Here is the input.
Amino acid sequence: MVYGLPNISFIGYPVPVPCAAHAGLGFREARPADAPGMIAHLLALSPEDRRMRFCTAVNDGHVERHVRSSWDRSGLVLAAHDGPLWSGPFHEPGPVRALAESAVEGGDAELGISVDGSLRRRGVGTYLVQTGARLLARRGVRRILAYTMSANTPFLVLARKSGATIEIDGGEAFITFDVAELTRGYLRRRLSEQVFRAVSRRRRPVTARLAGLDPGRGRAHKRGHEDVPQHRDLHYPLTPVRGALPVPKSGPT
Here is the structure.
């Protein structure tokens, strides 16, 4: 099966942002039916990444039990799918590439996050944490707590950039995120994306002329040459995760 059709990206969920074929990751709340994809994602992590996620070495059986129990506790599981978000008559949801898992107790939520190694340093982790905070704020959550290893540099960098409080004690790190601050970051990102799209649409005719295309015709026209097919992605606004992974020729075996 080919991932990418239909593909409506929910980057910045719950506001839908249409994306060109396989142009980005889609975020949505995970359901029990997503357990196999979540397990596959966690099992695909390197041994070191798995240790950082669970703060200890765990076997495959522990990972499967952890995922199966995700819906036995109050919380939120946000999954990033690479391709279609939902199943349909002729396709399945795209594979899970990142997870943000939180367990809620009172005004606090405990966070665990994992991102596919091929998507590091693209802002995916920050997107997940900000989006999760936006949804948790509606449940009365004021703080997001995380416990990790002090050697988990990517997560510590994410926390510092998000204005979190970090306490390091030997090989352990305790992190406290302010949900209000994360929500403000979420809203700023959504606003900047809206502005970027508006500016991109406004500049489209100029960009088309520079590319040698005539935007005034139904089909793109090369000056002095025969008609050429319309380039649908020519002016599509880019995001940090656009084109992060190639479209597989067929589905998983």
